[in-house]
Amino acid sequence: MNPIFSPLTLGRVRLQNRIVMAPMTRARANADGTPGSLAAEYYGQRASVGLIVTEGTQPSDDGQGFPATPGIYTEAHIAGWRKVTSAIHAHGAKVFFQLMHAGRMSHPDNTPHHRQGVAPSAIAPGEQIFTLAGMRDIPVPRALAIEEIPGTIDAYHHAARCAIEAGADGVEIHGVAYLIHQFLALSANRRTDRYGGSMENRARFVIEVAQAVVAEIGADRTGIRLSPGFTGMGLSHGDEGPDLYRYLVTELNKLGLAYLHIVHYGDESLLSDLRERWDQALILNRPERPRDEIGNDIASGLAELESYGQMTLANPDFVHRLLTNAHLSAADRTTYFGNSPEGYAVGYTDYGSLTDVSPYPSSLDKS
Asked: Does 352 fall in a domain?
């Protein structure tokens, strides 16, 4: 049998298979940041995978970047998410909440307090962002004062505790594109204090966030997502990017986290170096991975798990379709986010499971 279907112990939980539903922003939360009315159904439909990593959940008012994204820092958030985690567990999967602080990728119209975003430095990304009033230029963020950084870190570990109270099996620290990545990137971080300048200083923030979360809920319930090859949203590491991630992964490895989740964009040599520096489980996401390569990274020993986004979005019964060599539906990009005039269910909970299975060429071994 393809090794992706085999069980695995990840941290303190046992997974029914090695397929991970990748985090995907769906923008269908209520105005106060609690999960929307269909969230439990949406996640429960897809809970035949081994692990679900939720959409990015902001750890504070400052952490919100986009409209209708969920939070995990109030009692109302905890109560709302309990329905979701119960639905996931009822269908056999485990769930980690992704903690996502948007940093400068924000707009005052999208936050509860209507303030500008915060970031390592007062440098705008040079992009637009969606608001309920339409697309807007992202304003210059406010640079975090050094005395504010401990409070920002506190928000992460408070959110981690709230996630566990809501029934999560752990949390994933989001280190791609948003606040953590902004501290790492030379193009977004021009600080001259202990959080800027050298790559060791720029990595300090994410390491301290990880340490705080570990202290709150345990290393075996903490994962982190990184993407060394990501250069969108105005982010650049300069020539030292590979060395920065070698250093960062080496330091994070000392914490004994449950997993490292890498979104990979093609530098196989760097990926191999990071694998050698990481002793725990590695989840690998290759955007646009061909179907006939599903399971290859597990079989080769490069990763312990593989994550999939659009495929799990459009195919609630993704695991069944792989096992039966069935057709995979395509996701409708126009309904990714919750502003469809037809209603929130469209492109969310209305993707069907199979009744008539049609053959689909695949190299998956179903023996």
From this structure: no
